Amino acid sequence: MFVGVAGSAAAQQTDSLRRAFSERFDIGTALAARQLVPPDRATLNLVAEQFSVVTPENVMKWSLIHPTPDRYDFVAADALVEFAADNGLKVVGHTLVWHSQCPRWVFQDERGDPISRDALIERMRDHIHTVVGRYRGRVQGWDVVNEAILDDGAWRDTPWRRLIGDDYLDLAFRFAHEADPDTELYYNDFSMTKPGKRRAATGLVERFRRAGVPIHGVGLQGHWGLDYPSEQEIDDALADYSKLGVHVMITELDIDVLPRPDEEQGADVGRGARRTDALDPYRDGLPESVQQTLADRYAACFRLFNRHADAITRVTFWGVDDGQTWHNNWPVPGRTAHSLIFDRQLRPKPAYQAILDTATEPR
Ligand code: XIL
After folding, report:
1. Environment class of residue 271 by beta-carbon count within 10 Å: exposed (0-12), middle (13-18) or buried (19+)?
2. Res 10 pLDDT > 80
3. Would 18 disulfide with which of 52, 81, 238, 312, CB 3.0-4.6 Å?
4. With the CA atoms of 314, 318, 320 and 325 taken in that order, what torsion angle do they form, in degrees rounded to the nearest 10?
5. 221 lines ligand 1 (CB under 6 A)
6. pTM for the whole thing?
């Protein structure tokens, strides 16, 4: 039973995802700053009961934790790490090197000109040592590099790559390992089921292994829809990643039920479109039939995760409840999204029970 949320529907909830899946993999969620500072007790009680690992949704990203050259802001990140320690939850750090939510100054000198390769490497080293070093021994693993590969398998053109070269990934992983030799290091990306990205991501792990660069896992973000990727694609990709012999993780799971504004299926943060009523059909709630379709889709995904549980070490949802999901603002700002398994009042949705039921099915 939850402490401190008596009277809410959540208080009657006695099942627990973390317990149901404890023999298979960790179950995680992402926490936002407003849930941590000041602490949102109802949410945090639910998280402590249902999940075994937490990721900061934003507060460890470069632009939030290191907004200006001489200033770090650890307030919300510290709160997350403390909450986890107090409640016996693990922490996954997210994320050290990414093209998004990284301030422009990182790549520029005082005059606004691009800095040299050596200067950027030094800046990266410093940042990684400061952030990873601060939480040394308290973070199970880090998303070291996020989204460096395009869907076709090519390297993404980012300031990191332009200024340092392809070895910026190697350097990031080596620096993270220096800063905390006992923490796990992950490569994390969306659309990891697409063939080109699969090839490049598995190639990266194999190259790292040959070169002696430490890497312990690959994260499939899992920003998925009701009909993409197909179950076959997910199954094939999980089988492929499982062969690598590193941890396979679903790191940012959410299933978008809203219409897509374009043909894109990936989770590129650069996408965007304006809200229209047609793009925002469920402002007053999700119709029962769609609610059931969402539950079935979540259950189908978990059946696949269960089947690959020997390699999968963690499944993390990208947020606790529908009020939090980033789909309320991406790729169309201001919509009413229903991507997660708890509703805006923190009540479990049918998807919650459907997922729980898969834990007792034979694998
Ligand atoms: C998203 C957050 O959920 C939003 O709050 C923020 O405005 C943008 O970033 N891939 C990632 C995550 O690795 O960090 C992104 O999180 C979603 C896509």
Report:
1. middle
2. no
3. 52
4. -170
5. yes
6. 0.96
